[in-house]
Design goal:
Layout lengths: L1 H10 L11 H18 L9 H17 L4 H19 L3 H18 L9 H20 L2 H25 L5 H24 L1
């Protein structure tokens, strides 16, 4: 009887669940492709994407200045609105991102978010380099401006990959999303700049 009981237990043991790729495994990259497609759709002047360069730095700075990784996603939402207003109403999105970045730096310093050094300090430098690249690109001709934008986005994609691998400053989902977005849009912008 004891043998039968053991046998019954093994017969009624549930089969191992089949493993399927879960949405959580690929949604950041999928969202990156979707946003990149929307950004690239109908693009004729590659300089139109210049505010995205500033936005790529702003989202990281928001996380570093507040000490909250999730702040990067909130900052992405804010930059999305600013860039939409840039396209629809002529708002200078890069200028306003730089203003908000200065406020974030002040908030971060006041809150004492200065350690480790690669958080606020490094993200501040990156933000203002990317902001300057965005401002310069807008003032150049379409080819040169487009290549500045493409170069900045591809450089930032490497930044994204580094942060994804190290798990620093932002959520890995944000770094993955940004890397996919930056690479696709950077390539599209380069092609548009060189072929128009």
């Amino acid at each position: 009887m004891h043998a039968n009981t053991i046998g019954d237990r093994t017969q009624h043991r549930p089969a191992p669940a089949r493993t399927h790729p879960r949405w959580s495994a690929f949604w950041p990259a999928s969202l990156g492709v979707l946003v990149a497609a929307g950004t690239a759709y109908g693009l004729t002047d590659p300089r139109e994407v210049a505010p995205m360069v500033a936005a790529s730095g702003f989202v990281y700075l928001a996380a570093a200045a507040t000490g909250r990784r999730s702040a990067a996603w909130i900052a992405f939402g804010a930059t999305f609105v600013l860039i939409a207003l840039h396209k629809l109403a002529g708002l200078d999105a890069t200028f306003w991102m730089l203003v908000m970045a200065a406020v974030l730096v002040a908030v971060g310093l006041a809150a004492g978010h200065t350690r480790p050094w690669w958080a606020l300090t490094l993200q501040t430098i990156a933000m203002f380099v990317l902001g300057a690249a965005s401002l310069i690109a807008i003032r150049l001709d379409p080819v040169a401006g487009g290549l500045v934008v493409a170069g900045a986005l591809l450089a930032h994609a490497a930044w994204d990959v580094h942060h994804h691998r190290t798990g620093r400053v932002v959520d890995r989902s944000l770094a993955e999303f940004c890397a996919v977005l930056d690479v696709i849009v950077g390539i599209v912008v380069a092609v548009v700049a060189l072929t128009t």
